[in-house]
Each structure stands twice: as C-alpha cells, then as structure tokens.
Amino acid sequence: MIEMHDVWKTYPNGAVALQGVSIRIDKGEFVYVVGPSGAGKSTFIKLMYREERPSKGSIFVNGFNIERLKERKIPLLRRQIGVVFQDFKLLPNKTVKENVAFALEVIEASPKKIKSRVAEVLELVGLGDKANALPNELSGGQQQRVSIARALINNPSVIIADEPTGNLDPDTSWDIMRLFEEINNRGTTIVMATHNKEIVNTLKKRVLAVEGGQIVRDQKRGVYGYEN
C-alpha cells in the first residue's frame, strides 16, 4: 500500500526533516507514527499525500509514484487517500452534508450517488441526524466525525490522520479512536501521527517511532516510548 525507499527531505532553509527513511506499510494495517515535536512526523505524513515532495528517494502510495507524479495526476491520488486533520478544516458556511458531499461534487458525481453516499458515511460516523447542521453547531468530537466522513466519502484505500484527537477531550478521543478501529476493521489502511501516549499504549498497533528525521523503532504491537 505504502513504500518509501531511502527518502530524504530537506527544506529550502536547509533544515533536514527526514533522512534515509525506508518503510513498507501493507494493505489493512493500522500504524501509529510517534515521536517528539520536530522529529519529522508531519513531513513523513505530508509526503504520502503529496503535500510535500521528497528531496531524494522514492515513495509509492497505492501504485502511484509520488516523486514523479505530474501535477494533473495529484487529484487522482488524493481520491484514493482520505486525510483527517487535528483542526478539522471544515467549511464553516456549509452544512455537514455539504461538507461531506464536496469531494464528490468536485469529481462531478451524479446527485443520486452523492445523496446516497453522503447518507451512508454519515450513518457510519454516527451523524445521520446532523446532516443539516453547520459546523459551529457541533461539538469538537462531532466536527471531527464530519472530517472523518469527508475522508471516507470516496471509499479510500488509506486514511492518513495527523493528530486527529489533538484538540479533543479524553472521552471524545476514545470515541474517535473506536471509529477509526471500525474503519480499519472494514479493510481501510490507517496511518496516524499522534502524541496520545495512552491511546497508543492501550490500542496496540504497529508503531513507527521517528526521531531526528529517522525511523528509530518499528514494532508490530508497539508502545509510545516517549514522554509527553
């Protein structure tokens, strides 16, 4: 599903974010990416959906060669990847169903398909009764569920989540993690950057630990291993 071979990333200011990273993530895996602030986690995540490009090395995501991907092909890649952010990134003037439908409207799906698929994913994330609400009428946890529904709308092969529980209280964080587990159990690959030590240590998954731009630990059922 995801492969990196000797990937380096150096920013224009000379900062080296990743150095010599090589990993393979198989279909259906659930992988935590952990490490101290500034370790390179966000860069690692952004490379997967072509928000950043590698300075050296090769990256393949679901058959796409990220390094050589032409600009016009990026939307094709991103239709196969759902991305969930810490700060939700919802459109404030659109309802829940309009936020979720947006990705299908961009690819000019039929109104019938949009209506059916939006209803399906909103039920999956437990928001079937909130379709007409605006984001500011929802709790933080509900807004994150909308974000997850939006990420699911194109039935992606992989979901990449960057600190998805970072702005949520502990109880809500657990609700969101149970939702991610359900999505993973349906066959979707999940790669999640997180600082949440309790979640990582309780819901044992594969752990990739990043430090100084390198993968320093790769454990099948790992633990967090860093102090918050």
UniProtKB/TrEMBL annotation:
Keyword Heme: no
UniProt keyword Phosphoprotein present: no
Gene3D superfamilies given in the database record: P-loop containing nucleotide triphosphate hydrolases
GO biological process, one term: cell division
SUPFAM superfamilies: P-loop containing nucleoside triphosphate hydrolases (SSF52540)
Signal peptide from the UniProt entry: none
Alphabetized UniProt keyword annotations: ATP-binding, Cell cycle, Cell division, Cell membrane, Membrane, Nucleotide-binding, Transport
CC per GO annotation: plasma membrane
GO terms assigned for molecular function: ATP binding; ATP hydrolysis activity; transmembrane transporter activity
InterPro entries per record: AAA+_ATPase (IPR003593), ABC_transporter-like_ATP-bd (IPR003439), ABC_transporter-like_CS (IPR017871), ABC_transpr_LolD-like (IPR015854), Cell_div_FtsE (IPR005286), P-loop_NTPase (IPR027417)
Domain ABC transporter: 2-227
Compartment list: Cell membrane
Bilayer disposition of the protein: Peripheral membrane protein
UniProt similarity note: Belongs to the ABC transporter superfamily.
Function: Part of the ABC transporter FtsEX involved in cellular division.
Known partners and oligomeric status: Homodimer. Forms a membrane-associated complex with FtsX.
NCBIfam families hit by this protein: FtsE (TIGR02673)
Stored PANTHER family: CELL DIVISION ATP-BINDING PROTEIN FTSE (PTHR24220:SF470), IMPORT ATP-BINDING PROTEIN (PTHR24220)
Designated name of the protein: Cell division ATP-binding protein FtsE
Species of the source: Tumebacillus flagellatus
